[in-house]
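ingest -> validate -> predict -> emit
validate: passed (alphabet ok, no gaps, 342 aa)
predict: started
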Amino acid sequence: MSVSIRPTYPDDVPELLSLYNSCAGTRALFDPITADEFRTLFLPDVPFPNPDHADSVKVCLTACDASSELSGFAAGNTVPGSTNGYITCVVTKYERRHIGKALLAELEAKLRRINPALAKYRIIFYNPALLRWVVPETDDALHPGMPAMDVGSRAYVWFQNMGYRNLVFLNAYYKKISGDDVTYPEKISKKMKENEQRGLRITLYDRQKHGSFLPLIESLGSADWRSAILRNEAREHPLPMMVAVDESSPDENGRAFVCGFAGPMERQDCGRGYFAGIGIHEDYRNCGLGSTLFAGLCRGLADVGADYMTLFTGEDGSARRIYEAAGFRAARSFAGMEKVVG
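emit:
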């Protein structure tokens, strides 16, 4: 099939949206999206809602044949001057007609023209275009962003054939949280009591009782977590934050030292318990605070009305043991993929 590749026009959206949604739940794990969501995710003239991604430039290309039938689209983005270009998706109406190959090749070329510094094309969770997906074998539980390429999909093999190689493997975890589902396991309860005897307590953050987050933020060294914590603290009514505090090391105002965080905590419209991250100060690791803080997070999210939790971590990550000990199950495996610019 002979196709031409051109920029995606606003008038293309209804037909391309229908194509994307027709793949949802059949050829891919994608959850159906609205026309406004399509524009926000893919179209260059609509900025990403997160101000942290204001410098990202989006590319969206459409494939059409001689009869003007729209047979697919591909989308990605990059930040000029950075070394990474992100491939968000390649969606085609027909398989084995080389439409996807043509779309991907032109998408890669366009990203490189926009950003001459680009050295790698990536399919990974750093992509600001978050594709919502349905967690298999659940009551339609949703996760807000596809972390990488679903290894159970045909697209995974296809991208390998297009020159993309495995960069990292990730597992997505799921747990329903309600009632007895968030009862602390005996091992966790025991560890909590041991730590409390040392002055280490898991509790909700209280500005009157607990010190600044800044020492913890500096120790963690994550720009994303810094932004999430400080943005929440700047709110008129901050979302609840679960913290680990050291009551044996108060500051000059008698407030306990914050040595760990989990949150901010919020129930999303789909019922998912949201939290930006979880981290422990470097001076307080290897004493069981990670597992007890995570257990407190699960309880806290249930208390704010969340129905379930989803998250992902590296296949060999130490966090994996914490999640599995708390009763989470691995729901899906993903591969972060990369192609070096040749």
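The first helix runs from residue 13 to 23.
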